[in-house]
Write a structure and sequence with these properties.
seven-stranded mixed beta sheet; 19 strands; binds flavin-adenine dinucleotide; five-stranded parallel beta sheet; alpha/beta
Length: about 325
């Protein structure tokens, strides 16, 4: 299915993504025009992973009004009943669902369509909805990080102004390269630690920029290096390496870029503008990128969302998509 065009691509098969597929079908979008990409092996992964087996699923979770505005709706249910309901909804939609397919890049094409990339496919559509929830997690190293050291360890470079510090960036992909460039720009003394012998994973621009910084003496390149442990060291972090053996370094911060991502980083990486901590959204959840919408928990802000809110945001986004993109054969009912 690589390199195919769709009417609508939905990223994430949780309650919001499933509701979007259902709304799109109800609006007359053909089933084979809808693609759902889900990184987990099954839909509604957050419910499967985080809800205890005996948990009652409350329709008015966190006091959020349980008033349904679209085609999907739930009363109070058990966890299993909720999963059965969502299972039926995604099956009835007939949409293509591709599991174990994490979207890592979305970009605008010159013809104003959006290109959506996973490790195994490239897909295009005029309208794309991101419904990945808020529980994304960066990958962590295998060795433990003590609480004392954890205050000096970062998994992105957005949480704190990092300036004039000794920083070890760990990783060998594009994110690690981008962190290095950013941190050098911010007048930090940066060392890159990567276990491979060469920088083969990043794109050529990132790789060449980092090699140029190393050539200019603005960055220290630690290839074939592997960390064994981190220790607290008088307000700093002592990094003990297993490769080269019996070496260590003391730094102010360790920044890991080992894959995985937070939703905020993902949204910023696709070019969505933010206002403070939240993405800038229209009333129908359109983003600053034409054709790109958000749904579900991503739209709920700090107070968090609920399943019915996820359904309702999907319905609102779909109404707007029908108006803007001409892919619907039936006008969706107003809320
Ligand atoms: C412990 C707990 C209890 C809760 N109890 C209730 C309750 O009783 N009632 C209620 O209404 N709400 C409850 N909620 C809240 C509810 O689960 C969420 O509001 C709802 O799941 C949000 O749906 P969503 O589709 O926006 O996101 P999610 O449910 O988070 O779904 C996002 C999906 O996107 C996938 N994904 C992530 N990144 C990518 C990527 N890059 N590419 C492809 N796929 C990706 C994920 O694997 C996931 O399947 C609870 C939440 C938690 C954590």
């Amino acid at each position: 299915m690589a390199d195919r065009a769709f009417d609508l691509i939905i990223v994430g098969a949780g309650p919001a993504g499933i509701a979007l597929a259902a709304e799109a079908r109800a609006a007359g979008v053909p089933a084979d025009g809808i693609l759902v990409l889900e990184k987990a092996p099954a839909h509604s992964w957050i419910i499967r992973k985080y809800y205890p087996a005996s948990k009652p699923v409350l329709a008015n979770y966190k006091g959020i009004e349980a008033k349904c505005e679209g085609v999907l709706c739930i009363p109070d249910l058990t966890r299993e009943e909720t999963l059965t309901y969502l299972d039926r909804a995604i099956r009835d939609s007939g949409a293509h669902v591709r599991y174990r397919e994490e979207v890592h890049r979305i970009a605008s094409e010159p013809d104003r369509r959006l290109r959506v990339e996973s490790a195994t496919g490239v897909y295009r559509a005029a309208a794309v909805v991101i419904a990945i929830g808020i529980l994304g997690r960066p990958n962590k190293p295998s060795y433990p990080i003590s609480r004392e050291v954890a205050r000096r360890v970062r998994f992105d470079v957005t949480g704190e102004r990092l300036r004039g510090l000794d920083i070890l960036v760990v990783g060998g992909g594009d994110t690690a390269m981008e962190y290095c460039q950013f941190l050098v720009q911010e007048a930090n003394r940066v060392t890159l630690s990567y276990r491979g012998p060469d920088l083969t994973r990043p794109n050529p621009i990132n790789r060449d920029s980092v090699l140029a910084l190393a050539g200019q003496g603005k960055l220290t390149l630690g290839l074939e290096s592997e960390i064994a442990a981190l220790q607290a060291a008088a307000g700093r972090v002592r990094v003990l390496f297993s490769r080269p053996p019996e070496t260590s370094a003391v730094v102010d911060r360790v920044v890991y870029a080992l894959g995985g991502t937070t939703p905020e980083n993902f949204l910023k990486s696709v070019g969505i503008e933010f206002e403070g901590a939240s993405p800038r959204l229209t009333k129908s959840f359109g983003t600053s990128v034409p054709g790109l919408y958000l749904a579900g928990d991503l739209t709920a802000g700090k107070k968090g969302g609920s399943i019915i809110l996820a359904f309702n945001t999907a319905a609102a986004a779909m109404r707007r998509i029908c108006e803007d993109h001409g892919i619907c054969r039936i006008s969706p009912a107003p809320p």
